[in-house]
Amino acid sequence: MKKIGVIGGGAWGTALALTARRAGRDVVLWAREPQVVDDVNTRHVNSDFLPGVDLDPALRATADLAEAADADAVLLVSPAQHLRAACRALAPHWRSGVPAVICAKGIELATCALMQDAVAAELPQAPIAVLSGPTFAIEVARGLPTAITLACGDAALGRKLVDALGTATFRPYLSDDLVGAQVGGAVKNVLAIACGIVEGRGLGDNARAALITRGLAELTRLAMAKGGRPETLMGLSGLGDLILTASSTQSRNYSLGFALGEGRALADILGERHSVTEGVYSAGAVVDMAGRTGVEMPISAAVDAVINGGQSLDEAIRALLSRPFRNEGL
Ligand SMILES: NC(=O)C1=CN([C@@H]2O[C@H](COP(=O)(O)OP(=O)(O)OC[C@H]3O[C@@H](n4cnc5c(N)ncnc54)[C@H](OP(=O)(O)O)[C@@H]3O)[C@@H](O)[C@H]2O)C=CC1
Ligand SMILES: O=C(CO)COP(=O)(O)O
């Protein structure tokens, strides 16, 4: 694979574009906002979404979707709620057989669809892969050591993608469990909000460890109900990403939860942010998906009740702590 297209000029799209350049690929980054295109092409920075990082001058940005789609593989890095629209706009330019690599983490709120289903509906001619794991964009952009799951149903194509993107410090591990990788990436954002709330509320480290562990159980239950494998959720795209996101103030989901826990209003927190906090949008979709599949997800439901249902933090916490005692395990 010689040329990689990247759709989405946010922090993660830019970091992945940089990684693909380091792996020796030609890269074209499509960004929606003209000032991002201009910033990347003339000043070799993305000051809006990835400040403080010097980009490779050979990294080219474009506002033309056709140019980014004219590649050997295309990374889809628009936020989850906008990914379907991006694919619809890409469809007329997509050559049959070019792989679409899903890099967004979320579940579509309007349809309750995994990203894989949204992409397949809009780009039926594209083989699909998923790239997901514990990967703060700024650390990847700085070249710090990172491991990630690359899930692809076609092992030969998966290996080509690993070779196209992998470097000594960006290490994709191949899997064939697309569902597990997507559910892990989507649900951990919701759980990270819960962990941030616990920290902001001063409920202690024991409580955070309990939430991470029982959160892992509930995201594994959902993944299995959707056809994913439990071992995937014990890997980079499940436990790995949950540990990272649910315990670091670098995480937007965790820091949003922290601010909620301190008593700030959701609208005020979101109003100060230019970047996307996926768990806010996926919380309702996760709970909807859990209801449709008959899976119990009390922590995600508590986050949804606070974010979308107007429940107070104290009520949500009391409800979680009033649940009946049960056996450990899934
Ligand atoms: N940041 C990170 O560390 C990581 C992020 N991810 C995932 O990657 C995805 C993208 O996140 P990230 O790059 O951080 O985003 P950012 O918050 O850095 O940037 C926001 C992005 O949203 C795009 N955007 C805003 N509104 C729209 C819209 N109406 N239609 C299409 N695009 C829109 C912007 O595109 P434009 O610039 O073109 O305007 C920009 O790419 C998310 O699903 C996130 O969970 C995954 C791993 C790590
Ligand atoms: O997905 C991420 C790290 O793997 C980024 O998490 P946040 O969106 O919470 O910052």
UniProtKB/TrEMBL annotation:
Purpose of the protein: Catalyzes the reduction of the glycolytic intermediate dihydroxyacetone phosphate (DHAP) to sn-glycerol 3-phosphate (G3P), the key precursor for phospholipid synthesis.
Residue ranges occupied by any Glycerol-3-phosphate dehydrogenase NAD-dependent N-terminal domain in the UniProt entry: 3-155
Binding site for substrate: K105, R252, N253
An individual GO BP term: glycerol-3-phosphate biosynthetic process
Binding sites annotated in the UniProt record for NAD(+): G8, G9, G10, A11, W12, G13, A137, R252
Protein name from the UniProt record: Glycerol-3-phosphate dehydrogenase [NAD(P)+]
Listed EC numbers: 1.1.1.94
Annotated catalytic residues: K188
Pathway recorded for this protein: Membrane lipid metabolism; glycerophospholipid metabolism
Catalyzed reactions: sn-glycerol 3-phosphate + NADP(+) = dihydroxyacetone phosphate + NADPH + H(+); sn-glycerol 3-phosphate + NAD(+) = dihydroxyacetone phosphate + NADH + H(+)
Pfam families in alphabetical order: NAD_Gly3P_dh_C, NAD_Gly3P_dh_N
Cellular component GO terms, alphabetical: cytosol
